[in-house]
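tokens incoming
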């Protein structure tokens, strides 16, 4: 009998190049990082004895952040017109699509808003990026 272990049993796995991000009506090309997560505050509830007798749930919270190239930021600001700020953009959805091996998976980050705007270029940068924290209402995971 052979005890052969397949090293690549999953085939091609998802990587950065399998992600498409769509926001504000177009696919975003000038993105270098994306993060999003959600959680529900859960705690054990104690009564008699030393072990939990139940669980309590608090509020749901979603978080998101995006890092954009300076050129992408400028394009966004130009689309707003003079004197407008990124924080003036009305809430928008961000669609994150993963495609590989003929498989598609999509998450939607709902009601995103920019919380601020800043720049921090430094000597010898090959490109200028900025990380934005986003205010979001919730995340729909694995939607059709």
């Amino acid at each position: 009998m052979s005890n052969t272990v397949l090293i690549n049993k999953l085939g091609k796995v998802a990587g950065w190049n399998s992600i498409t991000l769509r926001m504000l009506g177009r696919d975003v090309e000038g993105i270098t990082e994306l993060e999003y997560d959600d959680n529900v505050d859960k705690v054990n509830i104690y009564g008699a004895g030393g072990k939990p007798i139940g669980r309590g749930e608090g509020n749901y919270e979603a978080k998101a952040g995006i890092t954009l190239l300076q050129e992408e930021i400028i394009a966004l600001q130009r689309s707003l017109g003079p004197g407008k700020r990124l924080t003036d953009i009305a809430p928008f959805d961000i669609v994150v699509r993963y495609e590989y091996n003929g498989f598609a998976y999509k998450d939607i980050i709902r009601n995103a808003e920019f919380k601020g705007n800043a720049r921090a270029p430094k000597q010898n940068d090959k490109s200028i990026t900025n990380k934005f924290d986003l205010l979001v209402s919730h995340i729909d995971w694995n939607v059709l």
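note: The mean pLDDT is 92.
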